[in-house]
Amino acid sequence: METISFRSVGNLGLMFVLLVLFFPLSCRAHETLNPNIIKFGVFPYKSPKTIIEMYGPLAAHLEKELGKKIKISSAADANSFLEKARNDEYDLLLAAPPVYYKLRSSGYKAIARGIPTFHGVAIVRKDSEIQTVEQLKGKKVAAIGGFSFAGYYFLLPQLEEKGIDPQKDVDIQFLGKVDSVIYGVVNKKYDAGLFRYDALDLPAFSEIREQLRVIARSSEIPQFPFVVKKRMDNSTINAIQETLSALSPDIPEEREILKNMQVKKIIKATDADYDEFYELIKDTDYFGKP
To answer: Does 160 share its domain with 284?
Structure first.
């Protein structure tokens, strides 16, 4: 079921890993009943290759500390990820908030979260004449997707406040990936781009971040929660929480794991930690679009 152990992933195995990330490897029923396997689903907000690079070290660390095989997987898109979770294909998830909220009714619950919070931004090239949200009218804007608060939704109320209809007055195009949005703006394919601001801190963007300028910012957004299914035993949940919260930025290998996830620390969490953000989005079209 498009899963693989990440005790070690070298260059030789990378192509194989990319293939199996989205295709079955073994009998689902067998894995569901195996208490020594944890199926770790990562929300598909990055390319398969990037997901492997970002979360492979975390999966290997969990495997070592828990003494259980961690099989990491993803899905083709947000809707597929939600469907797979509802079909019990994941034990542990790192899920976008709207997907997590939809899974609450299926018994999934939050157990940990990264800190600090982050912001979504609308950026333009530094040499752009665009200075304000109002000037996006009639422009081409690159966005992550309808599932993303930081990479799409946060801007809609700001446009509407200025009398701009986001659906009619702005050409918003979903690109799915942060890299595509940033380079789309830098290369002048789009007038502006929407994504989470701390993405610019990644080494891949070190040479171009100074070419961009922020014209709008969102409210604080919580990091994706770590979520577990209802049938997971308490001892395993506690072990996962302890392992995640023990990751230290003072230890080089663990600091790299945290850096990959764009967080400074992981702390224990409950559903209540996400209730405030839920109240912010529950009546919006964003919540209706996984």
So the answer is: no
Q: Do 59 and 177 belong together in one domain?
A: no
Indicate if 23 and 106 belong to the same structural domain.
yes
**Separation CA 189–CA 40 (nearest Å):** 36
* Cβ neighbours around 202 below 10 Å, total: 16
Q: How many domains does the chain have?
A: 2
Domain that holds residue 49: 4-117+222-288
Record the pTM.
0.77
- Burial readout 133-157 (b: 16 or more C-beta within 10 A, e: otherwise): bebbeebbbbbbbbbbbbbbbbbbe
pLDDT at position 127 is: 96
pLDDT tens-place string over residues 132-170: 999 999 999 999 988 788 999 999 999 999 999 999 999
Residues 16 and 67 in one domain: yes
228 and 206 in a common domain: no
Span 105-124, average pLDDT: 95
